[in-house]
# Entry
Amino acid sequence: MISVNIIIDNPEWKKKKFKIINYIKKNIKHLSKKPILKKKHSFSILLTDNKNMKSLNKKFRKKNKSTDVLSFPLNNKNILDNNYLGDIAISFEFVSKRSIKTDFKYELDRMWVHGYLHLLGYNHIVYKDYKKMHLNELKILKYFEHKLYT
# Structure
């Protein structure tokens, strides 16, 4: 089973017309039933804003700009041997802006799934790795119900 701790530190997230924490947990529970991983694990998601994302990005990646999603995997050689994978931070403004052309829930799922794959050890530094990670993102996103897939 996959479990998640969700922290909301920006009130804009709570203004959405659906219960975000319940929504994410429902999708993660659904994902737990799929044959993606066989091991129990957990992680945290921080739902925040551009200001905090910029601060985190500067502190941990030495980049003085905001970004859509940040992942902080535990520094463990065999990450799947550890039950706690790490943390993900997601910017409200990025999700909101991208959802103008798609759907807010879809963009939210895209961000946490992307961060989740980073926690599992995926990266997109070279094209070959990008392609593998992107295909896994799409595979996971198809497990969730979105208007984009109907």
Summary: Residues 96 and 104 are 6 Å apart (CA to CA). The mean pLDDT is 88. The two ends are 27 Å apart (CA to CA).
